[in-house]
Input
Amino acid sequence: MKLIRYSEFTGFDVFSVDLAGLMGSLSRQLLDSGFSDDYRWTRHQNEPDDSIDALRQALLRALMEQGVLDEMDVQKMLAENNGKFRGSLLEELINKLIERLIDEGYLDLKELSQEPGSEAGDGTGAGEIGQPIRRKVKFEITEKGIDLLGYKALRELMSSLGRSSPGQHTTSHLDTGVETSFGSRKYEYGDTLNLDVNATLMSAIAREGVRVPLGLDYGDLHVYQQDYRSSCATVVMLDCSHSMILYGEDRFTPAKKVTLALAHLIRTQYPGDSLKIVLFHDGAEELPLVKLGTTRVGPYHTNTAEGLKLARRILDAERKDMKQIVMVTDGKPTAAFIEPTHAAFFNYRRYSEVLPGENRLLYKNSMGNDPFVMAETFKEVQACRRSGIMINTFMLASEYYLVDFVKKMTAMTRGKAYFANPANLTQFVLMDFLKRRTSRTR
Output
């Protein structure tokens, strides 16, 4: 007779874990901006830790924060394996949880190519004869995972601001449609054929008199009017210069959360809109939304001119009625490119450097308020104005010398300037966006 021995299960049920809540708890790891690192790091050292071991550690912290596990459970599972994590029940359960996250489409694994000649001891080599080759694998958050983080951020950030029912963008123009908000007018080719029967019949009677049958002419047709619904193209410019995590404050992570929330809001409530992300630092680059979570600040200066130039090019390619730039920064411009043909080239080249992949010199002045840098920045602001692009600036600093710069920049494009901090950045960005969408544009 076969005997079955029952014992207390010290683990947890992998399939009962709420993955959406788990992803919310993982947001600190997935949206890490490098704030806790030493400010003397290099660009290579500032790369996020996207290894499987880092993911396991983050999952363990998240499970303990949610109360799925406690210290006692962890110690019991490790004690059964002589205190080692590798090969323990805890490792097995966390690996199964990672498999669930992958199966549900929140995370993805990517195997890195092995470098020739690497040794087995570092986990990337060929290993000894008869031993399995150890692989180097990293995890990536998927578009579904990013969208979930955006939803979580939006719900969290908007919860303290009360209810909001954003619709489509209302302008001062009128259009034809099913929702009848205003009086009718004569039908024009291409209008939605939502006839105002009374006005149509009265026009025919006025033309032919009261008789039966009453003949209708093309000019008698009247259609109802409604608010003209406009589409909007938005570029979020994120400053990822060094100062965004200096001075004992993480300013970049709140900016990333607001961007994710704004992206989710636009995708769900304004499907006709578009949102693109531009990072500006020593240069500028367009960033896919799925890469935003793992983006960190670097030892960079603030090249606002290059960011505005790239944002303007993106918006010029969009066929939208409304175009705007939402810029989140914490200081004045401190860098700008100098073309070899520029008159200032010979004066400033000794203060410059050539960036990889660039044929231009990057002129830098960390003190700010440099005449050449400011002139290049305002030149791009004026180009945005000529293109009909509004710039709304959210300044994460309140030093007095920033006021004049922000005032000039926003006045040129009829935008707005807000002096915010990481705590109230959400209120400024999201509520300003919703306000502009539910009120008429003059």
About this structure: The radius of gyration is 29 Å. Confidence is low (pLDDT under 50) at residues 37-45, 117-133, 160-181. The first strand starts at residue 107 and ends at 111.
